[in-house]
Amino acid sequence: MKVLVAEKCGFCPGVRTAINLAQKTLEDHDDVHSLGHIIHNEDMVNQLSEAGLSTVDSIETIKSGTVLIRSHGATLAELDQIREKGLKIVDATCVLVKRVQKIARQLNEEGYKVVIIGDKNHPEVKAVVGFAEDVEVVASDEDLDKIILGKKLGVICQTTQSPDHFANMIAAIARKGFSEIKIINTLCRETMARQTAAVKLCRQVGVMFVLGGSHSANTRKLAELCKKHNPQTYHLQNWAELDKSCLFGKTTAGVTAGASTPDDVVSEFVRNLESYEPASEKL
Hints:
With 283 residues, the protein is an alpha/beta fold. The chain folds into three domains: 2-10 and 189-280, 4-hydroxy-3-methylbut-2-enyl diphosphate reductase, catalytic domain (Cobalt-precorrin-4 Transmethylase, domain 1, 3-Layer(aba) Sandwich); 13-94, Rossmann fold, CATH 3.40.50.11270; 96-183, 4-hydroxy-3-methylbut-2-enyl diphosphate reductase, catalytic domain (Cobalt-precorrin-4 Transmethylase, domain 1, 3-Layer(aba) Sandwich), CATH 3.40.1010.20. It has nine helices and twelve strands. The strands form three sheets. The protein has a four-stranded parallel beta sheet, with helices on both faces. Strand 6, helix 5 and strand 7 form a beta-alpha-beta unit. It starts with a strand and ends in a 9-residue tail after the last helix.
């Protein structure tokens, strides 16, 4: 089977830095904890777990050692709590997420009602919310009623949202009543480049595969965008999840991957796909 790989896919610089930092921390320290999954990819999380990384959901459960702040960041309150317990902090927060946190705090200090376009349950958004006192998270038009009319609005966006969604939400917000609006583009360029490359590729192939964890927001967005242009799009974590029946009758396949998908997962998938012969399968 002919396999085409998106020009831009897989580990982004922020994720690669976080993984490298985690591996180095595990080499230098014995008692290392991650506050939540360091990235949203089970394969990578399992590898780090085998190397000694303990993933916890609560700071209260950490008695000693080093706390690794995941790529999505942590709130100011969480960072203060870790320091108060006398624990060592190794910060693997993506630099772009740090920028959003800084902007949210600055907007709040300037008297703006901070509006974050994104998923309120995503760890990145939760961390950013923890940097501002007057903040509202909106995911769709239905959430806009939560915005208090007449206030100065400072609008930012979860880094992994699509440019189209950001633009549509800005337009919807602009139709609401406000005294002043300040918009700062906090989208990740790496994410946008992956989305553009994925959409371009999915239009050229019979079947499209998007590799990455089910909890990865940027991977889910890739799959959502590709499916709009190619209904034969499948979001899988790795080769083991593939139902080969979707390959029947196909001669070309496209592959892309989320920003937290390891290179070896992509390589294995492409290698197996290239050697696959649909004719050898029994219906």
